[in-house]
Amino acid sequence: VRWLQMAALFPILWTHEGDELYFGQKQVFDQSALTKTMFKKYAKLHVKFFPYINTLVKEAKETGVPVMRSLYLHYPNDVNTVQIEDEFLLGDRVLVAPVLDSAARSRSVYFPTGKWYDYWTGKLAATGPTRVTVNSPLDHLPVFIKEGSILPLYNQNHIETLVKNVPGKNDFEYANSTMELRFYGTGDDRLQLWDGTQLTAQRSAGNDGNCSTSGAPLNRVYTCNFNDSEKVISAIESSSRLRANIFPNAFESKITITLDNVSTHKVKVSIADLVGRPIYQTEENSSSFVLDLSFLHNGIYAITIETGNGKFTERIIKR
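and the corresponding structure tokens:
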């Protein structure tokens, strides 16, 4: 599990499980319910970080600067960073402190200069340079984000693959149709994604943050999250506690919708384009149903599902 956690923020999630590795007793991951649960959590984390990791891969190709970096690379004037061998920077803004002792449930983390926020909670973890002992139960990988940094993340539900153009699967086109831009603390930052999209975010103390995008090669929906506030750069509302599974997405004609934890079977469904113009409405009386949307032109749409449990909005792709 600890090896899996660390590998989740490598450019390739590589567990070494399989026929190639054998130390007297082969480790078979799928025989442990706990390990399968952890694999699901950290496989999702790996996919979520794809926009940032892919951007770093492009940078590495063009400049030779590695994706995973010693702290010393960005903090050469801090003599303490020379000795750090059990932490790494993912790019210039993400500090990863994996737990290397299988029995440990906490570890000491060295934070270089600046304010560092806990990725999982969004709360300030430390102001460096300092060393802090952080809790790390078996299901937890310590990850920290430097203040004033944009972190681009995928935020679609149920991404099945990042391979392009896979019929019947929630593939790269589905994942890449929407993105969360997290900004931690205060400051001003710019980041160019691998596809040329320029991201900009600013926030000053006591004020709401602002973010913008330019140069995007596709009509992607962005959600800007400033830890304690959220802004959506589109006409689409954020979803509430209702959750729905939509399959396949992207689709060619029909989609199947299954609702989770629904107390009523009266379901209102509406589809709009990305500027909010209504295109289609219907009502269903089941928590699982099929819609024939073959009449839609190829493109990205917003589907909104309403029940007594709340309202859910998701991006869907017709191709």
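(Above: one complete record from the training split.) The first strand starts at residue 68 and ends at 69.
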